[in-house]
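Budget justification aside, the reviewers requested a transparent look at the raw inputs and outputs of the sequence design task funded under Objective 1. We therefore reproduce one unedited record. The lines immediately below are the C-alpha coordinates for a 475-residue chain.
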Protein backbone atom coordinates (compact mmCIF):
# COMPACT_ATOMS: atom_id res chain seq x y z
CA UNK A 1 0.00 0.00 0.00
CA UNK A 2 1.34 3.40 -0.84
CA UNK A 3 0.54 6.68 0.87
CA UNK A 4 -0.15 7.39 4.52
CA UNK A 5 -2.86 6.07 6.75
CA UNK A 6 -3.99 3.17 4.64
CA UNK A 7 -4.06 0.81 7.55
CA UNK A 8 -7.45 -0.47 8.56
CA UNK A 9 -10.05 -1.52 6.08
CA UNK A 10 -7.38 -3.08 3.96
CA UNK A 11 -7.46 -6.36 5.79
CA UNK A 12 -11.15 -6.84 5.25
CA UNK A 13 -10.61 -6.30 1.54
CA UNK A 14 -7.92 -8.94 1.60
CA UNK A 15 -9.90 -11.54 3.47
CA UNK A 16 -12.97 -10.88 1.31
CA UNK A 17 -10.89 -11.18 -1.82
CA UNK A 18 -9.43 -14.44 -0.59
CA UNK A 19 -12.58 -16.03 0.73
CA UNK A 20 -15.01 -14.77 -1.91
CA UNK A 21 -12.68 -15.98 -4.60
CA UNK A 22 -10.87 -13.16 -6.28
CA UNK A 23 -10.06 -15.63 -9.01
CA UNK A 24 -13.66 -15.85 -10.14
CA UNK A 25 -14.12 -12.07 -9.95
CA UNK A 26 -11.20 -11.41 -12.27
CA UNK A 27 -11.57 -14.08 -14.89
CA UNK A 28 -9.63 -13.55 -18.11
CA UNK A 29 -12.79 -12.49 -19.87
CA UNK A 30 -13.58 -9.78 -17.36
CA UNK A 31 -10.00 -8.59 -17.31
CA UNK A 32 -9.07 -8.61 -20.98
CA UNK A 33 -9.03 -5.18 -22.56
CA UNK A 34 -11.40 -4.46 -25.43
CA UNK A 35 -9.53 -4.31 -28.74
CA UNK A 36 -9.29 -0.53 -28.97
CA UNK A 37 -8.77 0.07 -25.23
CA UNK A 38 -5.78 1.48 -23.40
CA UNK A 39 -2.29 0.11 -23.93
CA UNK A 40 -0.74 -2.35 -21.51
CA UNK A 41 2.93 -1.95 -20.70
CA UNK A 42 5.54 -3.48 -18.37
CA UNK A 43 5.87 -2.16 -14.83
CA UNK A 44 9.20 -0.51 -13.98
CA UNK A 45 11.97 -2.89 -12.82
CA UNK A 46 13.01 -0.47 -10.04
CA UNK A 47 11.38 1.74 -7.44
CA UNK A 48 13.91 4.38 -8.48
CA UNK A 49 16.00 4.77 -5.33
CA UNK A 50 19.45 5.88 -6.51
CA UNK A 51 21.16 4.06 -3.61
CA UNK A 52 19.58 0.70 -4.52
CA UNK A 53 18.54 0.65 -8.16
CA UNK A 54 17.70 -3.08 -8.10
CA UNK A 55 15.26 -2.70 -5.26
CA UNK A 56 11.52 -2.39 -5.72
CA UNK A 57 9.46 -2.22 -8.85
CA UNK A 58 6.71 -0.14 -10.39
CA UNK A 59 3.20 -0.58 -11.75
CA UNK A 60 1.50 -2.11 -8.73
CA UNK A 61 0.98 -1.69 -5.05
CA UNK A 62 1.14 -4.63 -2.62
CA UNK A 63 -1.54 -4.83 0.09
CA UNK A 64 -0.62 -8.10 1.79
CA UNK A 65 2.04 -10.81 1.92
CA UNK A 66 1.11 -14.30 3.04
CA UNK A 67 4.36 -16.21 3.62
CA UNK A 68 4.04 -19.95 4.30
CA UNK A 69 7.38 -21.55 4.84
CA UNK A 70 8.76 -24.84 6.15
CA UNK A 71 12.34 -24.91 7.38
CA UNK A 72 14.63 -27.89 7.77
CA UNK A 73 17.50 -27.29 10.21
CA UNK A 74 19.33 -30.37 8.87
CA UNK A 75 19.64 -29.11 5.32
CA UNK A 76 19.08 -25.40 5.92
CA UNK A 77 16.50 -25.49 3.13
CA UNK A 78 13.13 -23.81 2.98
CA UNK A 79 10.05 -24.92 1.12
CA UNK A 80 7.68 -22.03 0.72
CA UNK A 81 4.69 -20.48 -0.94
CA UNK A 82 4.31 -16.72 -0.78
CA UNK A 83 1.03 -15.23 -1.91
CA UNK A 84 0.89 -11.54 -2.66
CA UNK A 85 -2.25 -9.42 -2.95
CA UNK A 86 -1.65 -6.35 -5.05
CA UNK A 87 -3.40 -3.68 -7.07
CA UNK A 88 -2.25 -2.60 -10.52
CA UNK A 89 -1.42 1.11 -10.66
CA UNK A 90 -1.17 1.06 -14.46
CA UNK A 91 -2.36 -1.27 -17.21
CA UNK A 92 0.23 -4.00 -16.80
CA UNK A 93 1.40 -6.38 -19.48
CA UNK A 94 4.18 -7.60 -17.21
CA UNK A 95 5.70 -6.77 -13.83
CA UNK A 96 8.70 -7.60 -11.65
CA UNK A 97 9.12 -8.82 -8.12
CA UNK A 98 12.46 -8.87 -6.28
CA UNK A 99 13.65 -12.41 -5.59
CA UNK A 100 17.23 -13.62 -5.28
CA UNK A 101 18.88 -16.86 -6.23
CA UNK A 102 19.62 -19.63 -5.56
CA UNK A 103 16.03 -20.45 -4.62
CA UNK A 104 14.19 -22.22 -7.41
CA UNK A 105 10.58 -21.63 -8.35
CA UNK A 106 8.39 -24.65 -9.05
CA UNK A 107 5.10 -22.84 -9.63
CA UNK A 108 4.02 -19.28 -10.21
CA UNK A 109 0.46 -18.16 -10.77
CA UNK A 110 -1.34 -14.88 -11.25
CA UNK A 111 -5.03 -14.96 -10.31
CA UNK A 112 -4.79 -18.72 -10.19
CA UNK A 113 -3.46 -19.17 -13.72
CA UNK A 114 0.09 -20.28 -14.39
CA UNK A 115 2.15 -17.32 -15.47
CA UNK A 116 5.35 -17.16 -17.50
CA UNK A 117 8.39 -15.86 -15.65
CA UNK A 118 12.07 -15.24 -16.16
CA UNK A 119 14.78 -14.20 -13.74
CA UNK A 120 17.35 -11.60 -14.60
CA UNK A 121 19.99 -9.39 -13.04
CA UNK A 122 20.63 -9.55 -9.31
CA UNK A 123 17.05 -10.01 -8.22
CA UNK A 124 14.46 -9.36 -10.92
CA UNK A 125 11.68 -11.92 -11.19
CA UNK A 126 9.88 -10.87 -14.36
CA UNK A 127 6.30 -12.13 -14.53
CA UNK A 128 4.09 -12.14 -17.61
CA UNK A 129 0.52 -13.07 -16.72
CA UNK A 130 -1.58 -14.76 -19.40
CA UNK A 131 -3.57 -11.53 -19.82
CA UNK A 132 -2.99 -7.90 -18.96
CA UNK A 133 -3.89 -6.51 -15.55
CA UNK A 134 -6.06 -3.43 -15.78
CA UNK A 135 -5.13 -0.34 -13.78
CA UNK A 136 -6.95 -0.37 -10.46
CA UNK A 137 -7.66 -4.09 -10.46
CA UNK A 138 -6.66 -6.35 -7.61
CA UNK A 139 -4.59 -9.41 -8.41
CA UNK A 140 -3.03 -12.34 -6.57
CA UNK A 141 0.45 -13.67 -7.25
CA UNK A 142 1.39 -17.01 -5.76
CA UNK A 143 4.97 -18.28 -5.90
CA UNK A 144 6.06 -21.74 -4.73
CA UNK A 145 9.80 -22.20 -4.28
CA UNK A 146 12.51 -24.01 -2.39
CA UNK A 147 16.22 -24.15 -1.71
CA UNK A 148 18.82 -22.97 0.76
CA UNK A 149 18.56 -19.17 0.99
CA UNK A 150 21.76 -17.21 0.54
CA UNK A 151 22.28 -14.24 2.86
CA UNK A 152 23.51 -10.87 1.66
CA UNK A 153 27.06 -9.99 2.69
CA UNK A 154 27.61 -6.43 1.57
CA UNK A 155 31.08 -4.93 2.05
CA UNK A 156 29.65 -1.65 3.34
CA UNK A 157 26.33 -2.70 4.88
CA UNK A 158 27.15 -6.04 6.44
CA UNK A 159 24.97 -9.13 6.73
CA UNK A 160 21.27 -9.18 5.99
CA UNK A 161 18.55 -11.48 4.71
CA UNK A 162 18.12 -15.11 5.73
CA UNK A 163 20.98 -15.94 8.09
CA UNK A 164 21.57 -19.52 9.23
CA UNK A 165 22.37 -19.90 12.94
CA UNK A 166 23.51 -22.85 15.05
CA UNK A 167 19.97 -23.65 16.10
CA UNK A 168 17.94 -22.35 13.15
CA UNK A 169 17.86 -19.10 11.23
CA UNK A 170 17.15 -15.40 11.65
CA UNK A 171 15.91 -13.17 8.83
CA UNK A 172 16.91 -9.49 9.09
CA UNK A 173 16.10 -7.46 6.01
CA UNK A 174 17.55 -3.97 6.34
CA UNK A 175 18.21 -2.71 3.79
CA UNK A 176 18.39 -5.44 1.15
CA UNK A 177 17.65 -8.83 2.72
CA UNK A 178 13.96 -9.56 2.14
CA UNK A 179 14.39 -10.93 -1.39
CA UNK A 180 16.72 -13.65 -0.08
CA UNK A 181 13.68 -15.71 1.07
CA UNK A 182 10.46 -14.27 -0.35
CA UNK A 183 9.36 -12.59 -3.56
CA UNK A 184 8.73 -8.98 -2.66
CA UNK A 185 8.35 -5.43 -3.89
CA UNK A 186 11.42 -4.56 -1.85
CA UNK A 187 11.03 -0.83 -1.43
CA UNK A 188 10.21 0.99 1.82
CA UNK A 189 7.42 2.93 0.16
CA UNK A 190 5.25 -0.08 -0.60
CA UNK A 191 4.19 -1.13 2.88
CA UNK A 192 1.81 -4.04 3.36
CA UNK A 193 0.29 -6.22 6.04
CA UNK A 194 1.79 -9.69 6.61
CA UNK A 195 0.82 -13.17 7.72
CA UNK A 196 3.72 -15.56 8.32
CA UNK A 197 3.07 -19.28 8.82
CA UNK A 198 6.29 -21.10 9.62
CA UNK A 199 6.68 -24.85 10.08
CA UNK A 200 9.69 -26.31 11.90
CA UNK A 201 10.57 -29.59 13.62
CA UNK A 202 8.73 -29.84 16.92
CA UNK A 203 10.88 -28.43 19.70
CA UNK A 204 12.06 -25.34 17.85
CA UNK A 205 10.37 -21.99 18.37
CA UNK A 206 9.48 -19.38 15.76
CA UNK A 207 9.02 -15.67 16.37
CA UNK A 208 8.06 -13.01 13.86
CA UNK A 209 6.46 -9.58 13.67
CA UNK A 210 3.13 -8.81 15.27
CA UNK A 211 0.72 -11.07 17.06
CA UNK A 212 0.75 -14.86 17.38
CA UNK A 213 -2.01 -17.10 16.07
CA UNK A 214 -2.61 -20.71 17.03
CA UNK A 215 0.36 -23.12 17.05
CA UNK A 216 -0.38 -26.62 15.76
CA UNK A 217 1.66 -29.84 15.69
CA UNK A 218 1.39 -32.80 13.28
CA UNK A 219 3.92 -35.52 12.54
CA UNK A 220 6.73 -33.95 14.59
CA UNK A 221 6.31 -30.65 12.76
CA UNK A 222 5.03 -27.56 14.52
CA UNK A 223 3.47 -24.62 12.72
CA UNK A 224 3.68 -21.12 14.18
CA UNK A 225 1.50 -18.25 12.93
CA UNK A 226 2.22 -14.56 13.22
CA UNK A 227 0.39 -11.59 11.74
CA UNK A 228 1.28 -7.95 11.34
CA UNK A 229 -1.97 -6.10 10.74
CA UNK A 230 -0.44 -2.64 10.33
CA UNK A 231 1.46 -1.52 7.23
CA UNK A 232 5.05 -2.79 7.30
CA UNK A 233 8.02 -2.09 5.03
CA UNK A 234 9.76 -5.24 3.77
CA UNK A 235 13.05 -4.09 5.35
CA UNK A 236 11.34 -4.47 8.74
CA UNK A 237 9.85 -7.93 8.38
CA UNK A 238 11.55 -10.63 10.43
CA UNK A 239 11.56 -14.32 11.28
CA UNK A 240 13.54 -15.96 14.09
CA UNK A 241 13.72 -19.74 14.28
CA UNK A 242 15.63 -21.50 17.03
CA UNK A 243 15.79 -22.65 20.59
CA UNK A 244 14.31 -19.69 22.46
CA UNK A 245 13.14 -19.03 25.97
CA UNK A 246 9.98 -16.95 25.51
CA UNK A 247 8.57 -14.53 28.09
CA UNK A 248 5.04 -13.15 27.77
CA UNK A 249 3.80 -10.05 29.50
CA UNK A 250 1.63 -7.01 28.91
CA UNK A 251 2.47 -3.34 29.00
CA UNK A 252 0.66 -0.97 31.33
CA UNK A 253 -1.35 0.07 28.27
CA UNK A 254 -2.46 -3.54 27.74
CA UNK A 255 -0.28 -4.38 24.75
CA UNK A 256 0.94 -7.98 24.51
CA UNK A 257 4.70 -7.99 25.16
CA UNK A 258 6.50 -11.05 23.81
CA UNK A 259 10.26 -11.32 24.30
CA UNK A 260 12.64 -14.19 23.66
CA UNK A 261 16.24 -15.03 24.44
CA UNK A 262 18.23 -17.67 22.58
CA UNK A 263 18.99 -20.51 24.96
CA UNK A 264 22.60 -20.70 23.81
CA UNK A 265 23.17 -17.23 25.26
CA UNK A 266 24.58 -17.01 28.78
CA UNK A 267 22.08 -15.15 30.86
CA UNK A 268 21.95 -14.13 34.46
CA UNK A 269 18.99 -15.31 36.54
CA UNK A 270 15.90 -13.22 35.87
CA UNK A 271 17.24 -11.71 32.65
CA UNK A 272 14.31 -12.96 30.57
CA UNK A 273 11.76 -11.29 32.83
CA UNK A 274 13.87 -8.12 33.10
CA UNK A 275 14.19 -7.87 29.29
CA UNK A 276 10.42 -8.23 28.99
CA UNK A 277 9.63 -5.67 31.70
CA UNK A 278 12.14 -3.08 30.54
CA UNK A 279 10.72 -3.34 27.03
CA UNK A 280 7.21 -2.71 28.39
CA UNK A 281 8.41 0.19 30.53
CA UNK A 282 10.28 1.87 27.67
CA UNK A 283 7.39 1.48 25.21
CA UNK A 284 5.16 3.25 27.70
CA UNK A 285 7.71 5.98 28.36
CA UNK A 286 8.27 6.58 24.65
CA UNK A 287 4.50 6.65 24.08
CA UNK A 288 4.39 9.59 26.47
CA UNK A 289 6.96 11.38 24.29
CA UNK A 290 6.06 10.27 20.75
CA UNK A 291 2.31 9.61 20.97
CA UNK A 292 0.35 6.39 20.88
CA UNK A 293 2.45 3.28 20.16
CA UNK A 294 1.74 2.41 16.51
CA UNK A 295 1.44 -1.39 16.66
CA UNK A 296 -0.72 -3.97 18.43
CA UNK A 297 2.03 -5.75 20.36
CA UNK A 298 5.65 -5.27 21.35
CA UNK A 299 8.62 -7.30 22.55
CA UNK A 300 12.12 -8.15 21.42
CA UNK A 301 14.40 -11.02 20.56
CA UNK A 302 17.93 -11.51 21.85
CA UNK A 303 19.47 -13.87 19.30
CA UNK A 304 22.88 -15.36 18.69
CA UNK A 305 22.96 -14.34 15.05
CA UNK A 306 26.39 -12.73 14.77
CA UNK A 307 25.56 -9.72 12.61
CA UNK A 308 26.95 -7.21 15.08
CA UNK A 309 23.96 -4.88 15.09
CA UNK A 310 20.49 -4.65 16.55
CA UNK A 311 17.56 -4.06 14.22
CA UNK A 312 14.25 -2.29 14.66
CA UNK A 313 12.15 -5.09 13.12
CA UNK A 314 8.55 -3.96 13.32
CA UNK A 315 6.88 -4.41 16.72
CA UNK A 316 9.66 -6.75 17.91
CA UNK A 317 13.30 -5.66 17.47
CA UNK A 318 16.13 -8.17 17.23
CA UNK A 319 19.22 -7.66 19.39
CA UNK A 320 22.28 -9.56 18.35
CA UNK A 321 24.21 -11.25 21.11
CA UNK A 322 27.32 -9.41 19.93
CA UNK A 323 25.63 -6.26 21.13
CA UNK A 324 25.94 -7.97 24.60
CA UNK A 325 23.26 -7.94 27.25
CA UNK A 326 20.68 -5.53 25.97
CA UNK A 327 21.50 -2.16 27.49
CA UNK A 328 18.65 0.21 28.30
CA UNK A 329 19.77 2.83 25.82
CA UNK A 330 19.92 0.25 23.01
CA UNK A 331 16.38 -0.85 23.91
CA UNK A 332 15.32 2.81 23.85
CA UNK A 333 16.96 3.17 20.42
CA UNK A 334 15.25 0.17 18.78
CA UNK A 335 11.91 0.85 20.46
CA UNK A 336 12.16 4.54 19.46
CA UNK A 337 12.44 3.30 15.87
CA UNK A 338 8.92 1.90 16.15
CA UNK A 339 7.75 5.49 15.69
CA UNK A 340 10.72 6.75 13.67
CA UNK A 341 11.56 4.27 10.93
CA UNK A 342 8.76 1.74 11.29
CA UNK A 343 5.51 3.68 11.57
CA UNK A 344 7.09 6.61 9.67
CA UNK A 345 9.42 5.29 7.01
CA UNK A 346 11.55 7.36 4.66
CA UNK A 347 10.52 6.79 1.06
CA UNK A 348 14.18 7.07 0.05
CA UNK A 349 17.22 5.63 1.79
CA UNK A 350 19.01 8.98 1.66
CA UNK A 351 16.59 10.19 4.36
CA UNK A 352 17.52 7.48 6.87
CA UNK A 353 18.62 10.14 9.39
CA UNK A 354 14.86 10.57 10.00
CA UNK A 355 15.14 7.08 11.56
CA UNK A 356 18.60 7.04 13.07
CA UNK A 357 18.74 10.65 14.25
CA UNK A 358 15.51 10.22 16.23
CA UNK A 359 16.47 6.74 17.50
CA UNK A 360 19.82 8.09 18.71
CA UNK A 361 18.03 11.05 20.29
CA UNK A 362 15.86 8.45 22.09
CA UNK A 363 19.09 7.12 23.64
CA UNK A 364 20.02 10.62 24.76
CA UNK A 365 16.57 11.12 26.30
CA UNK A 366 16.94 7.72 27.98
CA UNK A 367 20.27 8.73 29.49
CA UNK A 368 18.70 11.87 30.89
CA UNK A 369 15.58 10.17 32.23
CA UNK A 370 17.16 7.02 33.69
CA UNK A 371 20.84 7.84 34.24
CA UNK A 372 20.77 11.56 35.05
CA UNK A 373 22.94 12.51 32.10
CA UNK A 374 21.41 15.69 30.61
CA UNK A 375 20.85 15.69 26.84
CA UNK A 376 22.87 18.91 26.49
CA UNK A 377 25.80 17.15 28.12
CA UNK A 378 25.60 14.23 25.67
CA UNK A 379 25.31 16.69 22.81
CA UNK A 380 28.34 18.68 24.02
CA UNK A 381 30.40 15.51 24.32
CA UNK A 382 29.48 14.25 20.85
CA UNK A 383 29.92 17.70 19.30
CA UNK A 384 33.38 18.09 20.86
CA UNK A 385 34.44 14.51 20.17
CA UNK A 386 33.34 14.12 16.57
CA UNK A 387 36.35 14.15 14.27
CA UNK A 388 34.81 13.59 10.88
CA UNK A 389 32.53 16.44 9.83
CA UNK A 390 32.51 15.55 6.16
CA UNK A 391 29.41 14.17 4.52
CA UNK A 392 25.84 15.28 4.13
CA UNK A 393 23.36 13.92 6.70
CA UNK A 394 20.39 14.09 4.33
CA UNK A 395 22.30 12.34 1.53
CA UNK A 396 25.09 10.27 3.09
CA UNK A 397 25.58 7.96 0.12
CA UNK A 398 24.68 4.29 -0.30
CA UNK A 399 27.67 2.92 1.61
CA UNK A 400 27.25 5.34 4.53
CA UNK A 401 23.64 4.94 5.61
CA UNK A 402 24.76 3.41 8.94
CA UNK A 403 27.61 5.84 9.62
CA UNK A 404 27.99 8.05 12.72
CA UNK A 405 27.22 10.93 10.40
CA UNK A 406 23.63 9.71 10.17
CA UNK A 407 23.23 8.67 13.82
CA UNK A 408 25.19 11.29 15.75
CA UNK A 409 24.90 14.29 13.51
CA UNK A 410 21.23 13.34 12.97
CA UNK A 411 20.65 13.47 16.73
CA UNK A 412 22.74 16.65 17.06
CA UNK A 413 20.49 18.23 14.41
CA UNK A 414 17.51 17.57 16.66
CA UNK A 415 19.26 19.07 19.67
CA UNK A 416 20.23 22.14 17.62
CA UNK A 417 16.58 22.43 16.61
CA UNK A 418 15.48 22.10 20.24
CA UNK A 419 17.84 24.89 21.30
CA UNK A 420 16.45 27.10 18.55
CA UNK A 421 12.70 26.52 18.96
CA UNK A 422 12.55 25.78 22.70
CA UNK A 423 11.38 22.75 24.64
CA UNK A 424 7.68 23.37 24.27
CA UNK A 425 7.64 23.37 20.48
CA UNK A 426 10.36 20.72 20.25
CA UNK A 427 8.39 18.17 22.28
CA UNK A 428 5.27 19.04 20.27
CA UNK A 429 7.29 18.12 17.15
CA UNK A 430 8.31 14.79 18.73
CA UNK A 431 4.64 13.91 19.26
CA UNK A 432 2.93 15.55 16.30
CA UNK A 433 5.34 14.52 13.51
CA UNK A 434 4.87 10.76 14.08
CA UNK A 435 1.16 11.25 14.69
CA UNK A 436 0.62 13.21 11.47
CA UNK A 437 2.44 10.66 9.30
CA UNK A 438 1.52 7.44 11.11
CA UNK A 439 2.12 4.38 8.87
CA UNK A 440 3.26 6.62 6.04
CA UNK A 441 6.41 7.48 4.14
CA UNK A 442 8.30 10.67 4.82
CA UNK A 443 11.12 12.82 3.51
CA UNK A 444 13.51 15.45 4.87
CA UNK A 445 11.82 18.37 3.03
CA UNK A 446 8.48 17.24 4.53
CA UNK A 447 10.00 17.27 8.01
CA UNK A 448 11.45 20.74 7.55
CA UNK A 449 8.15 22.08 6.26
CA UNK A 450 6.31 20.41 9.14
CA UNK A 451 8.51 22.05 11.77
CA UNK A 452 8.42 25.43 10.04
CA UNK A 453 4.62 25.41 9.93
CA UNK A 454 4.28 24.21 13.50
CA UNK A 455 6.62 26.86 14.85
CA UNK A 456 5.83 29.56 12.30
CA UNK A 457 9.55 30.13 11.80
CA UNK A 458 11.97 30.06 8.92
CA UNK A 459 14.50 27.36 9.86
CA UNK A 460 16.24 27.11 6.54
CA UNK A 461 19.68 28.15 7.70
CA UNK A 462 19.66 25.78 10.68
CA UNK A 463 18.61 22.76 8.62
CA UNK A 464 20.92 23.72 5.79
CA UNK A 465 23.95 23.86 8.07
CA UNK A 466 23.15 20.61 9.90
CA UNK A 467 21.67 18.44 7.15
CA UNK A 468 22.92 19.59 3.79
CA UNK A 469 26.24 21.31 4.35
CA UNK A 470 29.40 19.31 5.09
CA UNK A 471 31.58 20.82 7.83
CA UNK A 472 31.11 21.46 11.53
CA UNK A 473 28.11 23.73 12.13
CA UNK A 474 28.75 26.66 14.48
CA UNK A 475 26.65 26.78 17.64
N1 LIG B 1 19.48 0.22 11.70
C1 LIG B 1 20.02 -0.53 12.80
C2 LIG B 1 19.82 0.34 14.02
O1 LIG B 1 20.29 1.42 14.08
C3 LIG B 1 21.49 -0.84 12.67
C4 LIG B 1 21.96 -1.52 11.45
C5 LIG B 1 21.25 -2.28 10.56
C6 LIG B 1 23.32 -1.60 11.01
N2 LIG B 1 22.08 -2.78 9.61
C7 LIG B 1 23.33 -2.39 9.86
C8 LIG B 1 24.51 -1.05 11.51
C9 LIG B 1 24.52 -2.63 9.19
C10 LIG B 1 25.67 -1.31 10.82
C11 LIG B 1 25.70 -2.09 9.67
O2 LIG B 1 19.13 0.02 14.90
ZN1 LIG C 1 18.89 2.68 14.60
Amino acid sequence: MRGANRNRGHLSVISCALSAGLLAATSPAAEAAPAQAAQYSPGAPSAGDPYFPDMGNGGYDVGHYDIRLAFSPETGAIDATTTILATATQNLSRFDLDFQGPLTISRLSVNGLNAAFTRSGAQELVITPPYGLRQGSAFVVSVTYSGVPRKVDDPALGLSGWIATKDGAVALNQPIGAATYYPVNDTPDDKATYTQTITVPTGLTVLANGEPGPTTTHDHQTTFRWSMNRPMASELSMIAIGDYDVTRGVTADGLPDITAIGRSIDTRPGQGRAFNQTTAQLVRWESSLYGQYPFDSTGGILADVGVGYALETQSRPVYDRKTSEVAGDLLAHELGHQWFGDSLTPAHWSDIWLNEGFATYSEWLYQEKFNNVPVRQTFAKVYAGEKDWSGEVADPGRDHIFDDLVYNRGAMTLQALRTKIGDRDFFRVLTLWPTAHRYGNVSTPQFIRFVERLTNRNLESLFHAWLYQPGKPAL
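The CA atoms of residues 135 and 265 lie 51 Å apart. The chain has a mean pLDDT of 93. Computational costs for records of this kind are itemized in the attached budget.
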